[in-house]
C-alpha cells in the first residue's frame, strides 16, 4: 500500500480555517508564509505574535487581554502568558443564543435529548445562580460524578461562569477512586446521577454516592440528576437535592460572567493514579481556552454549524477538550454508554442520524471494530463525516488501512496525541496535509515539539524522547497542594533542564510527522536496547487469533526479558504452533530483540478508566510489587491473572 492514504482536495485546502488564518496572518504581519509548515515555524518562533493572532482571528472575548503577552519566556516552569488578562471561559463557549442545537445526547438506545443554544444559556444561568446562592464563588471547587450528558455540560459552564473550578469523574469509578480525586481538592458542591446505562443495563450508583459524600466533609450540597431510574431517591445522602429542585427558584436571567486571571484555575485534572494517589493537575482558564480553540479551529477545521462528537467519559481529558467545540459555534454530540450496545453500529447510527462532521474516538475502539469485522462503509451513509480523530494509544498502521477500507475512503483520519498534562495535543491533525499510513501528521501550532536523544540533542528519523523546548499557554498552572512546585518540576523538568519532557518514546521525520512507540517508562530494555511497546503490539494484533495484548519487561538473570501476554479471540487456544507464529511475526517485522521470551494467554488485561492498558501495573504484579491504587483501574481484578505465574519463575 502507498504510504499516502489520503490527500485533501484543492477546494478543501482553500476552504480550510487554517488556510484562511495563514493568509490573515500574512496580511496582518506583512509575511509570506506559503505553507502549513511555514506557519508552524512562525508560530513557535514568534509565540508572542501567534497567540494574540489566534485571539483576534477567532474573536475570543475578554474584559482585557492586557499589553503583555509573555513574561519570563525563557523559564520552564515559570513563564507566564497574558499576565494582565481578565476573561471568562464560559463566556467564550456560550457564543450563540438561537434555536439551533447546542447539545444532542444519546444514552445508548435508552435516552435521546437535545438542547438549543437558547435553552443552554438559560440552563447555565439558572445553575450558576443556584451555585451562587449556595455561597460558591471564585476559586471554590465544583465536581461532577457524571455521565457525558447535557446536565454535565451545564454544570461545567455554570461553574466556569462564576469563576469556580471544575473537576469530574465518570460514574463507573468506585468510591475510593472518587474520594482519592475529589477528596484532595475539597469541593463545595457535587453534581451526580441516580445511575447510568451501560451495555443495556441500569447501574444504580446512589449507594456509592452516599459513601463518597460521607467521606468528603467539604460537600455542602449534592445535586442529583434523574437519569437511569424513575426517581431520585436520595435517602441517606447528606445534603442531597434533586437537579430540578436546585434550579427551581431561579429564572433564566442574563448570565453574569466573573472575569478571572489568565492562570485562574479552571480545571483540576487527575493523573491515572496507578502508582499512588492521583496527582491533581491544575489548568488555567486562558491557557486551556487558547490551546483547545487552536486545535478545534486550526487543526480540526471546526466551524459554526459543525457537529462534533468524541467518544469519551467525564473521567478522560477528551471530554474537557470536546467542550471547547462550543467556542467554534459547533453542536456537541454527546454519548454515554457502551459503543457496542446493542451492536457495534450505534455510533455510526448516531453519525448518520445527527449529521456528525467530526467523529472522535480511541485507537482501541477502531481496533475493536476491525477485530469484529464491521464494515460501516457498507451499512451507513456517513456522507457528513469529514474527519475522524483517534487518541488514547498509538493508532496502528493496520488501523489506518481499516478506516480507509471499511469506514470511509474520503475522510481525514487524524491520529492525535498529547495528554491530561496539557489539556491538548503535542502532535495532531492538519486538514491541509496528506495522511500517511501509521504517522501522526504534524506538531501543534504554537508548541515547540522536538525529539531528544539520551544526550539531550535534537534528532530526526531517530527514536527518542518527546520534548517541548519553549513554553506554551496550556502548561499546568501547577499541582494541587504543591506549594514549592517540586512535584510539578519533577514530573516534567527533571530529565532535561528548562525543557518539558513528556515521557513518550517517539520518532520525528523531516516533514514534521511523528510515530509514537509507547510510554518511555514502559519501554523495554533487553540487552540494554530500548524497544517501544507499540512496535510489538502492531505486529501481534495483526494476527486474527489475538484479541489484545500487553507486553512488559521482566527482570531476569541480570538483564530484562520480554514477556508477552495475549487475550485470544473465541475458539482459539495458545498452543506451540500459535506461539511460534506470534514469535515469527515479531521477528520478521521487527528484530530478534523484540521477540518475547515467553508468550502467555490471559483472560483479561487491566486498563484505566479511559481505556489505556496499564503496563506498569502488570510489571509491578509480575515482580511482586504492590499496585498502590487499584481504584484507578476499570477492571482491577484482572491484575490477579498476572500474579505468581509459574511460567515466569523459570
From TrEMBL:
Domain AMP-dependent synthetase/ligase: 100-471
Any coiled-coil regions, as ranges: none
Domain AMP-binding enzyme C-terminal: 542-612
GO MF annotations, alphabetized: ligase activity
Gene3D superfamilies hit by this protein: 3.30.300.30, N-terminal domain of ligase-like (3.40.50.12780)
Keyword annotations: ATP-binding, Ligase, Nucleotide-binding
InterPro entries (UniProt xref): Acac_CoA_synth (IPR005914), ACAS_N (IPR032387), AMP-bd_C (IPR025110), AMP-bd_C_sf (IPR045851), AMP-binding_CS (IPR020845), AMP-dep_synth/lig_dom (IPR000873), ANL_N_sf (IPR042099)
Residue span(s) of domain Acetyl-coenzyme A synthetase N-terminal: 38-92
Pfam families: ACAS_N, AMP-binding, AMP-binding_C
Assigned protein family: Belongs to the ATP-dependent AMP-binding enzyme family.
PANTHER family, A to Z: ACETOACETYL-COA SYNTHETASE
Protein name per the record: Acetoacetate--CoA ligase
Species name: Thalassospira povalilytica
Lineage: Bacteria, Pseudomonadati, Pseudomonadota, Alphaproteobacteria, Rhodospirillales
